[in-house]
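Reply to dn_fold:

You asked what the input looked like. This is it:
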Amino acid sequence: MALIELSPETPAPPAPATPPPAYFYRRAGLALAALLLLALGGAAPPAATIWQRVGAVPVPASGDFQLIGGILYAMDLDAQPRTLTAWQAQPLRRLWSYRSSTNEDPFFVAEATPDITVVRAERSVTVLDARTGAVRWTSPVAVQPVSDTVAYVEEEIFRPGTEYDPASGDPGQLYGTNSGSLHTEPARRTELRGLDLSTGARRWTLSFPGSVFTAWTADPGNGVVVLSSDKLSLISPATGEVLRERAIPLLDGVRAEAGEVIGNTVLVHYGSFGTGGPVIAYALDTLGELWRQNRPDPAGNSSVCSGLLCVSKVDEMVVLDPRTGADRWRIADTDLIAFGPDAVLELQGMTTPVRTADAGTGRPLIDLSPWQYQFPVQAGGAFLLSHLNKDRTTVFGLLRPGATEVQLLGRLPDMTVQCQAVPGVVACRVGDRVEVWAFRA
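and this is what came back:
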């Protein structure tokens, strides 16, 4: 689910391999085989081609790490100033380090492509060269990448003199802003600016009255969705061209308050988001109206529904047909994540996998109860599963869309519950280091 939010050196050795058993070789070639084994250290068994240790990266216990694409980013949050170090994940090799100009929170990599790395420090953004770590450009406000080449900035413009002084304690309605300050009046307008992600050069500017809600679609080519006080628009992130636009009605004199994009459906909410009230659904490709309904107040239901169209009620969650709004199936006390085009992943507490199920009917497909944790494989559509053994090792498996069972990968000789994965690589925290392993589906 994409919310429309106000403002949005040396390669490490592989794991030791075990030589094949002696009876594998013909008797006439036994002496030669033994010499080859002594010279080469043995041939890797089949299992080692599926799950192999790459190496480890030092990361302080107070630090953090991110695995994005084929790069592992290690963050030292106690350093003054904070330091970000980039490592090529396979083969493992240190690339560069960057020292931030601030110690503000949060500090993390917001986006990374083969060309650039976007570092977020509090509200500001620094764009680095992904190969060298050199600074390319900076922005005092948040930048939202929508593709490998384009980003946009959303900035609210207020009347001068309306900034709220927190020390005053004055009562009254306050209005948020993506600059981090509060104001006593609503924004006069909001500017959206498209930027070249490599250089920071401005490509286009659009202005909307008041505040807006924005969201980027799953396919950047589909555009950026903008919900203003009276219009729903789809904007090209490359040019700023308005691709499609339509008026948004008042409902009983009330204007739309928020929105979200789920797959190919845009939902416009009336009333505070997450508290129930009227909702209108529009098709992303045409912005034509699909259906309307009144949502119940979830009244504290904390279940998560991601990538699916759901309604949260007090004691259950109902999965809807995105084209009609009709009920498909319902479930209680469970989190749901879209898993490929036709299935869902059911979880407890967004960490413990329960099963996969048919997205249209809720029919159970694969029992995942032997597994304890799940980690999404970024940009791969799959999930890495793990469970802890009594011998203090961690076993990993791969759950792929359309598969009928979990593929067993191998084990890490330590206990860990902090992992991140991309296709072919997994990184897990073990004490003051991050272990990097390669896997093959």
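Residues 1-46 have pLDDT under 50 and may be disordered.
Hope that clears it up.
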